[in-house]
Each structure stands twice: as C-alpha cells, then as structure tokens.
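Morning!

As promised:
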Amino acid sequence: MSKRIIVIGSGAAGMTAASTAKARNPAAEVTVFTEDEDIAYSPCAIPWGIEGRTGWDDIVMHTPGFYEKERGIKVFTRTKVESVDDAAKTVAAGGKTYPYDSLVIATGGKVFVPPVPGADLENVFIVRTVSDGKRIQKALEGVSEVVVGGAGVIGLELAVSLKAMGKDVTVIEMMDQVIPRIADKDMADVIQRHLEEKGIKFVMKAPVQSVNGDVKVSSVTAAGKEYPCGVMIFATGIRANLEIPKALGLDVGQLGGLVVSPTLQPYRRGRLVPDVYVAGDLVQCESAVMPGATMSQLGSTAVKQGRVAGQNAAGCPKALFGPVASPWVSVIGDKQIAGTGLSTGLAVWYGVNVAEGKAEGLTRARYYPGGKELIVKVLADKATHRIIGAQIIAGEEATGRIDWMTSAIVSGMTAEEFLVRAENAYCPPTSMVRDPVFEAVEEACKKLGQ
Amino acid sequence: MSKRIIVIGSGAAGMTAASTAKARNPAAEVTVFTEDEDIAYSPCAIPWGIEGRTGWDDIVMHTPGFYEKERGIKVFTRTKVESVDDAAKTVAAGGKTYPYDSLVIATGGKVFVPPVPGADLENVFIVRTVSDGKRIQKALEGVSEVVVGGAGVIGLELAVSLKAMGKDVTVIEMMDQVIPRIADKDMADVIQRHLEEKGIKFVMKAPVQSVNGDVKVSSVTAAGKEYPCGVMIFATGIRANLEIPKALGLDVGQLGGLVVSPTLQPYRRGRLVPDVYVAGDLVQCESAVMPGATMSQLGSTAVKQGRVAGQNAAGCPKALFGPVASPWVSVIGDKQIAGTGLSTGLAVWYGVNVAEGKAEGLTRARYYPGGKELIVKVLADKATHRIIGAQIIAGEEATGRIDWMTSAIVSGMTAEEFLVRAENAYCPPTSMVRDPVFEAVEEACKKLGQ
C-alpha cells in the first residue's frame, strides 16, 4: 500500500514538506490541511501586497488546484485539524478521520498581540496571512493616520509601504531601538534615521497601553500619550503555534519552541515520537554559533526544515537538519539591512564577551557611478576569537555578503583566520577591491589583541 | 635610524604595500619607484575609462602628491629601476643609488602579445595602463571598426564599451569559448550569446595570424580570414613581469610566477632571500582548493598580498598570505559573471573527476518586480565530495554569492555538508526563499551519489 503522508499547515514549511515528500516518494498519498484560504505564499511579501507593489495573486505562488493537478497533492483549505491521535495514527479534520503513516506538523507561528484593552476593536489588525493583508488594504481606504505596533523588520517594511500609500505613519516600539534583539542599536539607528527622514514617526521605549475607540479604533495610547489613527496594525513578533503539539503533549524547549531531533522529530517526555515530524516557526533549533538553543523563525529556515521533514516523512534515507546561524535581510526604504549569527544583545544573553569591528565603504569602486553606502559590523568572541555575528547596511548587495559571513561563522573561522583565508571577488561596478567586510574584521582583530 | 623601505611598482600591490608599511611603521622612510605616469589605479577600470563612463581622474584614486603630503610616502613616477643589489641592499634608479632595509618587488604583469607580424603597427594597442587607455581613446576617434584580440574578461568588457561607443566590434579568440580557462564553456556561451545579441561579432578557435597595414593597422588576419579595422587591441592575458626577479636570480615556479614563502619572501636556489618581499601579479600562489600551485592575477589578491608584504617589510609581527581560491567577477553588458575555485577545465588539469550541478532561478522572489536571471553552477570532487568550484551568471548580486561559495570552498565543505550547514538570507526583493545555489549543490550531490 502506498504511504499516507499528512501535513498540517500550508506555509513555507508545510508546502515544502508536502512537495518534497511527493517528489521523493511519488507513490505516496500526500494530504495537506490548512485553516488558511491561501497557501504557498510568503508572509514576508504582505507589506508589498498591501502597498500594491506586488499583486495578491502573484504572492500566492500556487493554488490548491495546482498542487492537486501538477503535483498530485490534495490540499484542504479552511480546514481546521481538530485533533491528532498519534497512537492510532489518525488526524481528525472537518468531521472526518484520516489515517496516516507519517505526519508533518507545520502549523507555524502566531502574531503575538500584547494583552491590552481595545486590541479587539475594528480596524485593529495583525499581519500574517494574505487575508489579513487584503482586509488591511480595504480598511486603509479613506484612512489617513496609521499606527504600527512593533518596529521589527515586518513593522518597518509595513511602515514604508504605508508611507508610500500617503498615510501618516507612527511606529510604536517598546524597546529603545528598531529591529530589537537581532540588530545592534548603532546599526538599527541608521535605519530609524532613514525612515524618520522619509517622514515616518517613531515612539520608542513605549509599550502600547491601550487601543482606544468605540467600535473602530480611533487612537492608541503608549507611554501615557495618545496617537490618533484610523487603522492600527500589530507587528509584534511571532510565537510558536503550539495548539496541536500541546494537545499531543510534545516537549517544549526553554525558548518556547518544540524540541526536535536532527531528523526533525519531536519528543514526548524525552522520547522520540515515531512517524511524526515538525518544521517551521514552531521548531526550536540548535545554534551554529554557540552551544545551545535558538529560535529561527525565518522563511528560509522553514523551507530548509520542510525539505528535511518531507524527505524523512516519505521514508527516504534520513535527512538531517543542522544548527543554524539564521541569516536575515530586509529591504527598508532605500536601504537593505542584514544580519547573521548573534547580535551584541544576543551574545550578552549567551554570556559572550564581544569584540566589535565596524567599517564603512561603498558597494562599488569609489569612482564607479551608482555606488551605494555600505556599513559592516562584525562581532568576534573575545575568548575564542571566532566570528559570531555580522550585520550589514547597504544600498545594494547586502544579502550575498551576509551569506558569505554566515558561511565563515558556521565554519568556525576566527577573525584572524578570516583575514588570511577569506577572499572577495572584485570588479569596479560590483565591489571595492578590498571589501569593507575585511576592514571590519581587521578592526575586530585589533580589539581582540588588546 | 628609521627603517628604509623601497617598493618597486605602483599598482594595487605596490601602493598597498607602501601604505601598509607606512601605517604600521610611521617612522619608516617609504619610497616607491614606478615606470608608470599614473599610480594607484585599477587596470580593471580602463575599459570604462575608454568608454567615458568613468573619468580618468576618477580612476586614479590618488596622485603622487597625495601620497607625499597625506601619507608621507615618496613616489618617483616614470622612473625605471635599473638594478637591485640585494647583497648591498641598494636599488639603482634614475642614475642614483638608494639603500634599503626592506624591499618590496611589485612589478606586476605584462600583457602577453602573441609574436605575430604587424603587432607593432600604429593603432595596435595593449590595455594595461591609464596611458594605454588614453591613447586608445584618442586613436578611436573617427574609427568605425575595431578588433579585440582575446575574449577574456577584459577583452569582453572592452568589447561592450567599444560597442557602446558606436563601433563595429569583432572579438578574435584562439579557444572555442569566451573567458577560457576560468569559466566553463556552457556558462561562457551564455555571455557570448548575450554579446552577440548586442551586435558584437566573435571569431572563435582563431589565433591571430597577422596584423596588416602600412603604417597603421588596416586589418587583422585570423584563421585565414581578414577582418578590417582601424584599431586593434590585444587583451590576450597577463604574464608575470620578471625582469628584476630574473636579474636577481629568484626562483620561478612551474606556472611562471615567483615561488614565495607564506610571508611573501622569494627564494633563490631554494633559500629565502632576506629582507625582500614580493606582491601582485608576479607571485605564484598556493591553491586553497587543490594541493599545488596556482596563479591568481587579480586586483583583490594584489591588495591582500600588498598588505602582507607591507606589514612584513615594516618589520611588524609577521603577516601570512594564505592559499587562494581566487574569486572573480566581471560585468559584461547587462550580465555579471563570477567564478571561484576551479573551473571544469582547471579541475581536469589537476586530475580531478568533477560532478557538476547546475540550477536556474531569479535574484528576487518570483513575484517581486525587477528580479533578474540567475544561473548557478557548482563543481564537486567525485573522490572527496568537496566543493571545488562555482560559477554564477546573474543580472545582479553575483559577487556576494561567489564570495559565499569561496568561503565554503576554503573551509573544505563537501556538497552534502553544504546542504546541511549553509543558509541563505531571504527577503522577497533581494533573494528567493531557497537560493538557487542550493539547487545546484543538490544537483551535484545527486551525481556524487551515482
């Protein structure tokens, strides 16, 4: 009998797991259940969808019909999985019971909304699904003032899109910097200033206290002051969606994600759960930088995990998911900001003493037209001299540089080794002859020598 | 007494060595001798200088006056070093004798011009110095047909610039592909087709037999056919400029470059020559990919070597120059092509059995506007499974990706390890959620498994 594989969740992790399982085991019966209306899209694209820079139909790469016809995968949308019985190996959904041989749980994350009064008013939104995006787009019609709660990358991308739509935008952030946790304050401040120059307002160190209004939101109160708005959007970060895992009694780690084996199987009271795999925002990962756990709630990580979970669910030779450095990049206005490994804040959390190196330069040879600003920051561990993190702000080409630094980090290169062993390709229209990355590492080396 | 440091050569290696030596040892007397009129410029920029996209004064980053005033370095331009006496530790130049404590030889490379009749006619040029560029620019006035000899990256960049100036351009190449040696034919053919679409003509597998004309060139004969032209430019590759090293009896390696220690000191009959350092296009390097020698005649390598030679010449704690993978990138028309490590041709030369993986994708998420073509080719060693080379063609962002692959190569990652350990940053406007690099590596893995 052909293998029956059920996937719960239709995001990057779930759809990748489903497609991988079917590709590796074409005889398998692969079924996906999702509460969402749309599948196989990137939540990262929603700010641009709201702005209209990309069409909603473009963001959604494939329809359920496509999966059924082209890939032989059955997708049930708007279908909540009511329960999973991993002893009987069945899933209950839409009033029916479906048996499985392998199960992939890829239910992703939920936007964390702070428990403040008024968060349930009309025109108060989170931004996670295409449906959220469409609702926000509609609500914005005729509205001039918008408050964004949270200055993480999605919040900032959203603020830029809203500003481009002609709105008066105020971003309210609890911490003293934008992109908290993953970016250092000095780098984050460059982005904040850039957005302030575009007319976006920031209220920092100000947790949202209440959302005010009768039926619809009319203002938001933060740090004792009131900010009028016709729409309020929470972009306050993602928490693992653990409804099904908790019902199954799966082990949750110290960072609030599921503890998994390198094969992406979950544990229950310390024992691997057979024939169950997990992938995506609900997984707690191993850090490639420090011994210990980390959360890596990124689309790129979800796809990587989806491939491993899908291959293992298909009964192929075991695939392994490795530790992560979690490189990320965001385009915010005219600047790209990217990071990898630990920020200074995270390093302190891990108990690491950090040597910082920072350098500025251009993305092209100084004389070549069109070169853009490039700021590189590199962090090294004072004890081991290993490079443990990097952040880049650039007008272009930040992504490749951060992937380059990621490769150096996961290879365990020290700052000194990097100077000897790393090389950069050079051509006047695409780079400086010595990339500023080297200057930042050299700066860090000097501080390591002190 | 302060240390006297003499540098011969004013290219990327020489000027970097001089600046590094002075920065590390501010009391040192640093003197540079060069035959060139201009110093501290990138020969890679000359095609764009000829086209007028960048001004000649922009390309030349600093004048001798700048070095003297701002950095305290004395530069003698248009000054040939007649001889070096490394026993007496003196350099003879311009009729005078200069004593040194440390000497850096950075005399670079010479354009190899094939020994064909007529190569000395008027309006026949090489392209190496700013003076060459200015002469070519002047000679091109009123000329409609130009022949470029050699389809390496400089030849192709030149062809694009000449075409943009409205010239009728024919490129004559001895081999059966453009960018021979460092690019694979399938990748090179994409670039050739792109240039053919722009109207540039190619004559392949055709060594130049003669340059014809009375006083000025009027045509070039290759593979028995005659190609009329008013200007002919040789871009036929670089050979180490060994005039001074040969006079000193320094050891030359099997690839025609100087054999050096990791401190960049040359050898004479197997013994290190004290207080002499070399840097730039005349150095034979160690390969970071295979055990053995390699030539790395790149501006980025020259700068890296210049820093090591300069620091060591200054008498600082020894700096080391490591093995190289030699990443390179070139912007040719609307495409960027980049490579690192071995090409298939070079791998065969090293006796390696290659597994190839190739993938196509885009530089941005499929739905995000402005995404450009991305072709990735990865080579792995069938015996060790190590990644030994990569080539990328992309409309944008090739450089960072090739630096990323370089880092993986010099870390000794196998193709299988890369799939587990490498990660890519993702954001719809800058990348696909799973970079095509991974697909190419996965393709290679499949072939390694066969």
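Chain B has three domains: 4-43+55-108+240-313, 113-236, 328-448.

Hope this helps with the figure draft.
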